[in-house]
Amino acid sequence: MKTVHKYVLTPHGEPKTIELTREHQFVYSSFMTNAKEIWVWVEVDTDPGAAREVKTLKVTRSGDALPQEAEHCGTAVDQYHAEAYHVYCLDS
Question: Which residues lie closer than 8 Å to 81 by C-beta, 6 or more apart?
Fold first, then answer.
């Protein structure tokens, strides 16, 4: 079985380390205007024996440098300040 977990990031905060199942898929990213947060939804395996890996979610703006192996997870737009935040997943 699968489920979807939500992770909360701040636009100008530190990267967030999370544990995901090896078989995961980034579903959606959104800027939550009222909280000034970026929410990222990830589909993961619910099997307790599923292989897991530690990843780091990092928020960047357009033009910021990233490692070549960074995986794009989604883009969240703050419509009131015309700002786009790009979420990337890095190996920890």
Answer: none
pTM for the whole thing? Answer: 0.88
Helix %, strand %, coil % of the chain (to 5):
0, 65, 35
Beta-bridged to residue 59, according to DSSP, are: 87
CB 77 within 8 A of CB 55: no
User: What span, in angstroms and rounded, lies between the C-alpha atoms of 83 and 29?
Assistant: 14
| Four-residue CA torsion sign, 17, 18, 22, 26 | negative
- Cα–Cα distance, 71 to 75 (Å, whole number): 12
Task: Go through 10-19 and write b for each residue having 16 or more CB atoms within 10 A of its CB, e for each that does not.
Answer: ebeeebbebe
| pLDDT tens readout for residues 33-59 | 999 999 999 999 999 999 999 999 999
